[in-house]
Amino acid sequence: MSPEHPGGLTRPAAVRTRLLKVPAALLLALFQTAPSMTAAGITIKGSDTMVILNQRWAENYMEKNPGVVIQVTGGGSGTGFTALINGSTDICAASRPMKEEEFRALEKKYGSRGVEIPVAQDGVAVYLNETNPVNELTLAQIRDIYTGKITNWKSVGGRDARIILYSRENNSGTYMFFMEFVLRNKDFSPYAMSLPGTAAVANATSRDKNSIGYGGSAYAKHIKFCAVKADTDSPAIEPTEENILSGRYPVCRNLFFYTLRKPRGPLEQFISWVMGPEGQEIVAQTGYFPVKR
């Protein structure tokens, strides 16, 4: 456990010895809800978009470092920032940048504005059902759909059917990014159904032929990605690795780790591994994109 962790607990040595005999993959599951940690324990809490990626990082790292226990939980980026401010996590995983009021809350409590570490890149994809004849939309059309101005697929070249809207919960970093970047801070339609996690949005979109959703580009099972146009005169761009890394895809973002202070000890070693070749290879394997060097 990093000495700078504001509220960590130390597990007795006898208990720690028994725990380290458990396989790493099982340890991850056991510690997903456990509040206490070993002296070399690390907690990651926050973005639901990043949960799968964080779990894979944790599993791989624990297999290589059996003296380390990593606890991974989701709940949304906002939940992660609250946990960091409350001192109940070592790492806040976030799919949006920290807000100024969150920086101020950290500074007021700890005298530190925290450390921001971009750990991966992602394109926020627009999900469509595989049977939807629509293949591309402009940012303005997506905004009009999600604010309730456009309510029928016929208005954007699709079938004559009411558009079913799926969204994320308002504590999600993906929700905040989508609202600020795509909706330009306009309110979501009251008919948008909020779902607890990106996987849930993708799953709902895959089952409803008239639906639309949004989320990380790693979630692509039984749905198709809508190509996005910055405006009517721009080309339609899909959220592929090449388009995201080059910046051509118009809805890109970084995924972050936030720590209270500069990482040290086991925490520094873990984050260095995440940022190194092995950790960034897991980023690619999970469906996201390595950070730019």
Description:
- With 293 residues, the protein is an alpha/beta fold.
- The chain has eleven helices and eleven strands.
- It has helices at residues 13-19, 24-30, 51-64, 77-86, 100-110, 139-146, 173-181, 198-207, 241-246, 265-275, 277-286, and strands spanning 41-46, 69-73, 91-94, 115-129, 136-138, 164-168, 193-195, 211-216, 223-225, 227-229, 252-259.
- The strands form two sheets. Strands 1, 2, 3, 4, 6, 7, 8, 9 and 11 form a nine-stranded mixed β-sheet that branches. A two-stranded parallel ribbon has the order 5-10.
- Strand 1, helix 3 (51-64) and strand 2 form a beta-alpha-beta unit.
| Strands, total number | 11
CATH domain topology of the largest domain:
D-Maltodextrin-Binding Protein, domain 2
Number of domains: 2
Between the first and last Cα atoms, what is the distance in angstroms?
29 Å
CATH class of the largest domain: Alpha Beta
- Residue share in helices? 25-40%
Sketch the topology as an H/E string, one letter per element: HHEHEHEHEEHEHEHEEEHEHH
What order do the helices and strands come in, and which of them pair?
Elements: H1 13-19, H2 24-30, E1 41-46, H3 51-64, E2 69-73, H4 77-86, E3 91-94, H5 100-110, E4 115-129, E5 136-138, H6 139-146, E6 164-168, H7 173-181, E7 193-195, H8 198-207, E8 211-216, E9 223-225, E10 227-229, H9 241-246, E11 252-259, H10 265-275, H11 277-286
Parallel strand pairs: 1-2, 1-3, 5-10, 6-7, 6-8
Antiparallel strand pairs: 3-11, 4-8, 4-9, 4-11
Helix pairs in contact: 3-11, 4-5
